[in-house]
Specification:
Elements (H helix, E strand, L loop, with lengths): L2 E3 L14 E5 L5 H10 L16 E3 L1 H9 L3 E2 L2 H8 L6 H21 L1
Parallel strand pairs: 1-4
Antiparallel strand pairs: 1-2, 2-3
Helix pairs in contact: 3-4
Length: about 110
């Protein structure tokens, strides 16, 4: 079982500066993600329970704590490859991650 965090997001005008996502490998039991989240002070009700991408969003302080306690830092594409659940081929997962990256880039350019 591996817990992953992605790189912090910095979008001008957003209240969530420096926040990131925390997920668990797609073949792991979600309870392990909940247990880890609880160990760094998160509550289960904060879970974004999307069926394919269950995750927690972490502010910078909890991200640092998660890494200190063993979470692995990965990029957006690697996060999708390792954690996306459901019937999706890896090349489709990469396309989703690239689309998300492009959307973030476009938002940053507009600012």
């Amino acid at each position: 079982m591996t817990i992953y965090v992605d790189k912090p997001q910095f979008i001008k005008g957003s209240l969530l500066q420096g926040w990131c996502n925390m997920m668990i490998s797609k073949d792991a039991d979600l309870q392990k993600l909940h247990d880890f989240a609880e160990s760094i002070g998160l509550r289960l009700r904060w879970l974004h329970s999307n069926e394919r991408t269950p995750h927690y969003e972490l502010p910078p302080s909890e991200r640092k704590l998660a890494i200190k306690r063993g979470a692995t830092v990965v990029g957006d594409i690697e996060l999708v490859d390792k954690c996306f659940r459901g019937e999706v081929k890896m090349n489709e997962a990469r396309k989703l991650a690239l689309r998300a990256q492009k959307t973030l880039q476009q938002r940053r350019e507009k600012e």
